[in-house]
Specification:
By secondary structure, this protein is mainly α. It is built from 21 helices and no strands. The radius of gyration is 23 Å and the shape is globular.
């Protein structure tokens, strides 16, 4: 248990470090050193590569974790690991061949609105393959119970590499084309370093022997391709589709807004690692009372913490935009930021909902929900983006997330007769709304940085005192007593 707690703590610290570096890149360096068209191109390329990642990995990163422990002999383990290394080539080789043979056709299709996209098709393909195999090598060490180095590579390495490239671009050590090639090299290096580390932990012995459970492995891999594609499509398809409908510089405005809003999801990502095994344990034991308590506690605690982050972002956003380079241009993403922030807050309200569904017997049903809602999201993007631009993409995302989350809440209730809400949920919602109404239009007549510091301090004091005095959450009250020495 000590090893788990120790690695979890280090993983959380590394995740926040990566987020900090990414924030500096997103809010200041990219916006200062690249034109909005160039920045939009970078976001488009990375988003498209991310959407392709589950396909390039062939679901192997999840399959490896699920099935590895079921093989008890070295021979079967080696055969399984060999399969995991070569299985993605079933997709990778045809994709590379198709890209080579039909490069012009693919380029023309993707570059309907933005000619600049044509120059970076191979860049996108290379990054997608590198990301796919990175996830496989990360899973390789996860099954050996070693995750810290992998988390560093996943969260920090590529962001630090991008920061270095941006600085080199600013000082004209590299030009734009070299910068884009450099990004590809960063992601390929990330994959190679992960491979070297993974093989140092457990070196593979290439063995081609038939596995008894080959069919279930392949079925699960295909299932995970769909699951992974649903998740990444919900995150990145809007940016990919914008490249076909509006000027690519708008993707830069959109991406900055979405990145800021994504800070709200950080507590949920951290807690999810704990919620998954606990939910699995209660489901296996059929301990539905504890499952309900965990569901409601996680929902309440995440809603309180994420609600506070939501307030800090929304209440300070105008000042934050002021201190950004090209602030007038990026301020056009304000509506996007607010509506995406609300959707992230709704995600937090679900608590352990995903952990319950993914560890239950209803996993395939959730995939069906996901596929239907991705279809709806694509259709909504096709409808709204041409009419409303980046605001249309945000509206489409919000509607898709609202429908998806609501469907999952209803499904869990129908199958387990439990809801994430408690008697305090509405009170927290009213409290967050009251803070927005009270502080959004209140501005200090100082420098934007001083304004952010002052408003953050006031909101922090008032929010913490109210949460503590009204004792909305026993868990949070205990933490506040321990670390803030409150009585």
């Amino acid at each position: 248990m000590g090893v788990v707690a120790n690695q979890s703590f280090k993983n959380i610290i590394l995740t926040y470090l990566g987020f900090l570096i990414g924030g500096i890149n997103t809010l200041f360096l990219y916006t200062q050193f690249l034109s909005t068209q160039q920045y939009g191109m970078v976001n488009y390329m990375l988003s498209l590569a991310t959407v392709l990642t589950p396909l390039m990995a062939f679901g192997v990163h999840n399959t490896l974790i699920k099935f590895y422990s079921s093989f008890k002999t070295r021979s079967t383990q080696n055969s399984f690991l060999t399969l995991m290394l070569f299985l993605p080539l079933v997709i990778v080789v045809p994709v590379v061949a198709i890209t080579y043979l039909f490069n012009e056709t693919i380029s023309d299709f993707l570059a309907v609105k933005n000619e600049i996209i044509k120059d970076y098709i191979w860049h996108t393909c290379a990054i997608a393959i590198a990301l796919g195999y990175f996830e496989i090598f990360f899973a390789w060490i996860k099954v050996q119970m070693k995750t810290v180095f992998g988390t560093f590579m996943k969260e920090v390495f590529h962001r630090a590499g991008a920061m270095l490239l941006l600085i080199l671009l600013y000082f004209k050590v590299v030009n734009l084309d070299q910068f884009m090639i450099g990004l590809v090299c960063v992601y390929v290096s990330k994959m190679l370093v992960m491979k070297i580390y993974a093989f140092s932990v457990k070196f593979p012995k290439i063995t081609f022997k038939k596995l008894n459970n080959l069919i279930p492995i392949l079925k699960y891999s295909v299932l995970i391709i769909i699951a992974g594609s649903v998740a990444t499509v919900l995150l990145d398809i809007d940016k990919v589709m914008m490249g076909s409908y509006i000027k690519i510089k708008n993707i830069a405005y959109y991406s900055v807004a979405v990145y800021i809003a994504a800070v709200i999801a950080v507590p949920q990502r951290a807690m999810h690692q704990i919620l998954m095994p606990l939910s699995a344990k209660y489901l296996n034991e059929k301990n539905y009372t504890s499952l309900k308590n965990l569901y409601q506690k996680s929902s309440l605690n995440l809603f309180i913490v994420s609600g506070f982050v939501f307030l800090l972002i929304v209440l300070n956003i105008n000042e934050l935009y002021e201190i950004m380079p090209n602030s007038n241009q990026y301020h056009t993403g304000l509506f996007v930021l607010i509506i995406v922030s609300i959707s992230k807050l709704y995600d937090a309200l679900l608590g352990s909902n995903n952990a319950i569904l993914f560890n239950s017997d209803y996993y395939r049903v959730v995939l069906t929900f996901g596929v239907i809602l991705v279809t709806i999201m694509i259709l909504l993007n096709m409808l709204f983006i041409p009419k409303f631009g980046i605001n249309g993409a945000a509206i489409a995302t919000f509607i898709a997330v609202f429908l998806y989350n609501t469907a999952k809440i209803i499904f869990v209730y129908k199958k387990f007769k439990i809801l994430p809400f408690s008697k305090f949920t509405l009170k927290i919602m009213l409290l967050i709304s009251a803070f927005v109404l009270a502080f959004y239009f209140w501005e200090f007549p100082f420098n934007p940085i001083i304004n952010i510091a002052c408003k953050t301090f006031i909101v922090f004091i008032l929010y913490v005192l109210i949460i503590y005095k009204l004792n909305f959450s026993k868990d949070i009250t205990t933490v506040l007593k321990r670390y803030l020495k409150l009585k």
